[in-house]
Amino acid sequence: MQGIVNKYNQVLADSRVLDGFHPAPNLVYLWPPALRAYRRIHRNMTTIKKTISDEVEEHKKNLPLSGEPNDYIDAYLMELEELKRRGEMDHYLSESGLRENVVDLFIVGNDTTAHSIRWCVLFLLCHPQIQEKLQVEVDNVVGSDRTPSLKDRNRMPYAQAFTMEVLRLSHLGPLGVPHESTEDADIAGYRFPKGTTFVANVWWCHMNPKFWPDPEKFEPERFLNPDGSVKTKVPSFLPFSLGKRQCIGESLALMELFLFIAIFMQKFTFRTTTGLPHPKAEGVDSITIKPPKPFQFLVEERKH
Ligand code: HEM
Fold first, then answer.
1. From the CA of 61, how far away is ligand 1's center (Å)?
2. Relative to the CA of 106, which ligand 1 atom is closest?
3. Chain mean position to CA 214
4. Is 247 annotated as ligand-binding?
5. Is the CB of 245 inside a 6 Å radius of any atom of ligand 1?
6. What is the distance between the alpha carbons of residues 161 and 169, in angstroms, rounded to a whole number?
7. What percent of the chain is predicted at pLDDT more than 70?
8. Does the structure show a pLDDT above 90 at 280?
């Protein structure tokens, strides 16, 4: 899978080379670096799709005949089998649809989660005292004899609050994803004709002092209730955007981030190379906002 991740990262880098060519795509043939990027995207995407196709074929060979599916591909294939058995058809479900979905999930889920983890590390380097609090929590709840698991999540509100504050301040998707209206609409006294592009200003929701006192400050405590439990409903917190097309990977992403942070904090301490806190957590604009690259740091194994 690391091979696919590398290939996809190359696709992203090459897409940036082609950014300016959208109004006149044929111009790529006149500029060799753009043509090379274009051809490499095609090659890499073909390899990614082929790897996923092979994975689907492998799943077909080992498909559980009954009981629980092992993963998404199994679940989808089992549903297709069930439809076939009943002699029914569903226009939304097909093997090619499955392959496309897996490519989409892999691509969308990989970049966002990887950047969020890098943001977590950057915020830890900026706030050593917060890192210590996270370590105290994991030591108290899990100790050092076993690896943290999702069962520990409810007893580790500070780790959850930390990941939420990282998602608030990293502005991974500052304007969500643009959507186009399919019919005329009247909203708040304004008329929006069919075909209007809408964006959700997530950045403003996350930085609005009305909802977040001192919004620039990194403060996981804002996601904790007075009794120390983690807040579940925070209407102005929208890292996964909102509405019908909001991120379908939200719960998976939160699980992954929790596990990474809990395991990192149990095993390691992250330090800057100077020994002083990293001065500032600033991002670089790309398809998603990502942390500056490269930022160097030291990883010390914790002695328990
Ligand atoms: C920290 C991690 C993540 C963040 C911040 C994030 C954020 C977002 C945002 C802002 C959108 C746009 C919603 C809209 O169109 O209004 C989105 C869409 C989407 N995300 Fe995520 N995401 C994350 C992780 C994941 C993961 C792990 C997966 C799947 C494995 C995933 C799958 C998707 C898919 C399929 C869509 C498109 C949904 C649709 O158009 O109906 N995301 N995500």
1. 30
2. 30
3. 26
4. yes
5. yes
6. 12
7. 98
8. no
Q: Three-state SS string across 68-134, please? A: CCCCHHHHHHHHHHHHHHHCCCCCCCCHHHHHHHHHHHHHHHHHHHHHHHHHHHHHHHHCHHHHHHH
pLDDT at residue 136, rounded to an integer? 98
Count of alpha carbons within 13 angstroms of residue 142, beta-carbon side: 27
Residue in the structure block whose two tokens are 């009794």? 227
**What pLDDT is attached to residue 286?**
61
Q: Show the tokens assigned to 40.
A: 């490499």
For residue 119, the tally of other CB atoms under 10 A from its CB is: 23
pLDDT, tens digit (0-9, with 9 covering 90-100), for 79-133: 999 999 999 988 889 999 999 999 889 888 888 999 899 999 999 999 999 999 9
Task: Please compute the mean of the pLDDT values over residues 175-199 and round it to a whole number.
Answer: 94
The Å distance, Cα 16 to ligand 1 centre, comes to 21
User: Rg of the chain over CA atoms, in angstroms?
Assistant: 22
Looking at the DSSP bridge assignments, the partners of residue 273 are: none
Residue pLDDT, tens place only, 59-79: 999 998 778 999 999 999 999
Instruction: Please report the pLDDT score of residue 174 as a whole number.
Output: 87
- Look up tokens 């990474």; give the residue: 260
Domains, in order of start, for the chain: 113-304 (1.10.630.10)
Give me the DSSP letters along 198-223: E---HHHHHH-TTTSSSTTS--GGGG
Output the CA torsion sign for 143, 148, 152, 158. Answer: positive
Q: Report the alpha-carbon distance of residue 92 to residue 106 in Å, rounded.
A: 20
Distance 105 CA to ligand 1 centre (A): 9
- Residues 292, 283 contacting (CB under 8 angstroms): yes
